[in-house]
Amino acid sequence: MEAIVDQAMREGALGVSSSLQYIPNIYSTTEELTALAKVAARYGGAYFTHQRSESGRIDPSLEEVFTIARDAHIRAQIWHLKTAYQPQFGRMSEVLKKIEAARAAGVDVAANMYPYTRGSNGLDANLPPWVREGGREALLKRLADPAVRERVKEDMAHEGKDWENQYLGASGAEGVLVAEVLESQLKHYEGQTIAEIARAENKDPRDALIDIVIADRANAACIMSIMDEKDVRTALAHPLTSFGTDSPAKATDGPLSHETSHPRGWGSAARILGHYVRDEKVLRLEEAIRKMTSFAAEAAGLKDRGLVKPGFAADLVAFDPATVRDLATFEKPNQYSQGIPYVAVNGVLVVDNGKLTGQTPGKALRGPGYQRKGTRSEEQGARSGKSEAKKPTG
């Protein structure tokens, strides 16, 4: 695994990313993660993590992030920081103080987030890990067994010590909304909560959820009500949190238009600039832009992005502070935002006067350890198993 990370860093990876709440990364140990992060650090890469817990075990989870960053001498970024589920509501200030304390102790750690109180995941993520182990086919085979199905339902009804029960964390069926399905005959479920579906079909809500997982072959996605607005505002305003969407690209036409998604993939930046900056004054405009640009580029290790200056890529956005706003909702997410008339990528307009130009000037971005294939340094590194890249400066 260390050799694979070494190869990936030389091929342009930005670092090592973990998703410790989900199969199969749930089984990774702190020692294993530290060993891999050390390899990425040799090339100036970062450690990005969906930490092991965002709810009841968030304190030891944070300590694990700090331990990996400290022992691997690597900068760390916590994906979509949150204090999830009602028992943790109101704890964001405490969590941010822990990150501040770690930085004061010399650990290079920060976080990012999206500006919504609901998260999104595969619908099958509401099921316990043991039934999902081994992938899609193994999951579907197990769920076909009535006895296994009853055990799954029992686990869904109780808080477990060895997994994050998202179903309970969202307050059950009322807090789980079906966001998208792949099978056309299931499309009528999109935009409905599991509770609504269960009532319409006269089912136990857990059976309704499992039935959709089976019918859509574990492709269905859901949106879950798991955060508190005050915590979101507290994190948005903090200088150590940058922004992200945690969502793939979508479009209103073409092949990316046939599925719905979380509105964060459509409206995150506009929601921050319009709602939280202009209307609610949660943070200053200048600070919001820093978090969207230079802060994010620095966290990812991109040396020529995020600032307007000679020698940097001309990735530019022109927006109207008075009119910018998001239109995407949880019920109707596939809507572009307003008030952003011009967008340039690498100096070429991709949005001109509010309309897509059809230009595609984007290119793959490579991390600081990138080495062109066939160079002498790469060949030597492959033979020796060691990196000749400079160590990060912190």
Range of strand content: 5-15%
Q: Describe the biggest sheet?
A: 5 strands, parallel
Question: Level of helix content?
Answer: 25-40%
Query: Helix- and strand-based class?
Result: alpha/beta
How many β-strand stretches? 12
User: In sequence order, what are the helices and strands, one letter per element?
Assistant: HEHEHEHEEHHHHEHHEHEHHHEEEEH
Question: Can you give a write-up of this model?
Answer:
This protein has three domains: 144 residues, TIM Barrel, CATH 3.20.20; 106 residues, no CATH class; 120 residues, no CATH class. The protein has 15 helices and twelve strands. Helix 4 links the parallel strand 3 and strand 4. The chain starts with a helix and ends in a 10-residue tail after the last helix.
Which terms would index this structure?
4-stranded antiparallel sheet; 394 residues; 5-stranded parallel sheet; TIM Barrel; 15 helices; 3 domains; globular; single chain; alpha/beta
How is this fold's topology laid out?
Layout: H1 2-10, E1 15-19, H2 30-42, E2 46-50, H3 58-72, E3 75-78, H4 92-104, E4 109-113, E5 118-122, H5 129-132, H6 136-143, H7 146-156, H8 166-169, E6 176-180, H9 194-201, H10 205-215, E7 221-225, H11 229-237, E8 241-243, H12 264-279, H13 285-292, H14 294-300, E9 316-318, E10 342-345, E11 348-352, E12 355-356, H15 376-384
Parallel strand pairs: 1-2, 2-3, 3-4, 4-8
Antiparallel strand pairs: 5-7, 6-7, 9-10, 10-11, 11-12
